[in-house]
Amino acid sequence: MTRFICFFTLILSAGLWPAGCASRTSLNSQQQSFLLETTPGTQRQPLPIAGILKIRHCRAATPFDGQYFLYRTQAGQYQQDFYKLFLTPPNEQITELLRAWLEQSGAFRGVLPASSTASPDYVLEPLLSAIYSDFSEPTQPQTVLKMHVVFLKADKNEQSSRVVMEKTYENIEPMQNNTGQDVIKNYNLSLEKVLAQLQSDLVSALQ
Length: 207
Description:
Blueprint: E1 4-7, E2 10-11, E3 15-16, E4 20-23, H1 24-30, E5 32-34, E6 50-55, E7 59-60, E8 68-72, E9 78-86, H2 90-105, E10 108-112, E11 122-134, E12 142-154, E13 161-174, H3 180-206
Parallel strand pairs: 5-9, 6-10, 6-11, 7-11, 8-11
Antiparallel strand pairs: 1-4, 2-3, 8-9, 11-12, 12-13
């Protein structure tokens, strides 16, 4: 028997649809999946100023650890859009994008993924605090991306670390339209701005 699921879908131009039911097959055929994408910045260190950096897996705060796009409504509630979603959880995507960005920066002799067993000189612990579209003010829709990072000086076994820098980054971008392409475009822009500022702050903390 076909499994049925109930859902609320947010139609941005008209408010909220009432609850309804649709088969999983029907829902999947209408879903749109998106990936975060960033272009590493042009600010590159001519020579490394630090040793090996390891990027730990980016965690995500609840409810931003899922794949469905989230919308904040006028009532201050968060609604999932079952038609638009990240191809994989955004925090998982950010882990690799962050590693690639800092590797391209040239600030470190090497940038290791979380899976690496090599001993790093520094460790970066990222947390995705928020990622959603805010429609609490209908005439001023915007996207919100917020991250918290802890930058640590590690010993050889990563058993004892010293905090070098800890900071929260937030970027808010106005929305021109409400399509999935517009939302992901804003997220990409926000993430690039956050990563560029993080790169600059790391370089400053190391000098």
